[in-house]
Design brief:
- With about 375 residues, the protein is α/β, with parallel strands linked by helices.
- The protein contains 15 helices and 13 strands.
- Helix 1 packs antiparallel against helix 10 (about 245-260), helix 6 (about 135-140) runs parallel beside helix 7 (about 165-175) and helix 11 runs parallel beside helix 15 (about 365-380).
- It is globular.
- The two termini are about 30 Å apart.
- The protein binds pyridoxal-5'-phosphate.
- Pyridoxal-5'-phosphate binds near residues 75, 78, 153, 182 and 185.
- Pyridoxal-5'-phosphate binds near residues 107 and 153.
């Protein structure tokens, strides 16, 4: 995607809304605008739309309709999963131990830290290997009777690495401990069959797969004890108060439908171009190292560190050359601290501060990639410290 001479290569931060998704949303702003909780027929019409979106998502996730809770974003889904299950597990069985990977999104890690600092939970981090991958055996060795919840991200937003979710869920289930995965990046290009993954809780957000910002969902396995974060009306089975955002719920459901029905096509399109990009970067820039797993990674995701390079300067130079990239987490703009995720891989602080994330999307063209590959070597040279 390009506007005039500017090329967007930051699809892990967010994606533009698919035209078909936008079209599907429009009637719910103007015509079917009523509050789905209203008893009158306008309300019922809106309610029907929300419930058929829920039904269609349940079909895609291979779960029951009543296991899907709509939220306002991926972050809210992460918060509800963590805080909701931690509070419930403490109330039910005095479980106070929280076990998470060190490569979680901040919506998970900062929530877990708040639970530790403000509510006295014992927070433990799992180790990861140099690719940022969790070893299921480490979960097996650290899980306890008083573990309230285990959390491991499905596919990492900064380094693209995919975790062995099915294997981790099996261990958690054998120990009767809840397992949550943040699939906000993963849902865009990976399978999200709940039965296959075996998770108890799974978070998604529409804007990472060509849907609108400000809408997400949390899958909650039936029978899971969750204390709501947002109290008020009885919407979303009493687990998330607030008038349903009807057009955005429709947008989420439509975007997820396309993400999964066109998944293989998108996967193959992106992976071949991403592989080419990585290969070209290695060929032209000897100081480049890939971060994250070389194979077990999101198909659109390339992330690097460059020896002796100032990552923020590199981003600024790329920006002025007409490329929108990222240094890792989008939330870190202007923050000179190295990313926790990159440090968790064992990277030295200076190397972690030289990171570049290039993420492709279904709108990315071969010309855009060629143009990027052509400009990157000189931008890296200019960013040497
Ligand atoms: C973007 C993202 C989030 C946050 O989702 P929002 O909808 O932006 O709140 C959480 N986890 C991961 C892995 C993400 O990429």
């Amino acid at each position: 995607m390009a506007t005039e001479d500017y090329i967007y290569l930051d699809y892990a931060a967010t994606t533009p809304v698919d035209e078909r998704v936008l079209e599907a949303m429009m009637p719910y702003f103007r015509d079917t605008f009523a509050n789905p909780s209203s008893v009158h027929r306008y309300g019922q019409e809106a309610d029907n739309a929300v419930e058929s979106a829920r039904e269609s998502m349940a079909g895609i996730l291979n779960c029951q309709k009543n296991e899907i809770i709509f939220t306002s974003c991926g972050s809210e889904s992460d918060n509800l999963a963590l805080r909701g299950s931690a509070f419930a597990a403490r109330a039910a069985r005095d479980a106070n131990h929280i076990l998470i990977s060190p490569v979680e999104h901040h919506a998970v890690s900062n929530t877990a830290q708040q639970l530790a600092e403000l509510h006295g939970y014992e927070l433990e981090y799992l180790p990861v290997n140099k690719y940022g991958e969790v070893d299921p055996d480490d979960v097996k060795n650290r899980i306890r009777e008083d573990t309230a919840i285990v959390s491991a991200i499905y596919a990492n937003n900064e380094i693209g690495t995919i975790n062995p979710i099915k294997e981790i869920s099996e261990i958690c289930r054998a120990n009767s401990v809840l397992f949550f995965t943040d699939a906000v990046q993963g849902a865009a290009y990976l399978p999200i069959d709940i039965e296959e993954l075996g998770v108890d809780l799974l978070a998604i957000g529409a804007h990472k797969f060509y849907g609108p910002k400000g809408i997400g969902a949390l899958y909650i396995r039936e029978g899971t004890d969750i204390i709501p974060n947002l109290t008020g009306g009885g919407q979303e089975y009493g687990l998330r108060a607030g008038t349903s955002n009807v057009p955005y719920i429709i947008g989420l459901s439509e975007a997820l439908t396309f993400a999964q029905s066109e998944r293989e096509e998108r996967y193959n399109y992106l992976k071949s171009r991403r592989d080419y990009l990585i290969q070209q970067v290695f060929e032209n820039i000897p100081s480049a190292h890939l971060t994250g797993h070389p194979e077990k990674r999101l198909p659109n995701h390339a992330s690097f560190v460059f020896e002796e390079v100032d990552g923020n300067l590199l981003l600024a130079i790329l920006d002025s050359n007409g490329f929108a990239c990222s240094s890792g987490s989008a939330c870190k703009t202007g923050d000179p601290e190295p990313s926790d995720v990159l440090l968790a891989l064992g990277l030295h602080r200076n190397l972690a501060l030289s990171s570049l994330r290039v993420t492709l999307g279904i709108m990315t063209t071969d010309e855009e990639i060629e143009s990027f590959i052509e400009k990157l070597p000189s931008a890296v040279k200019q960013s040497k410290k």
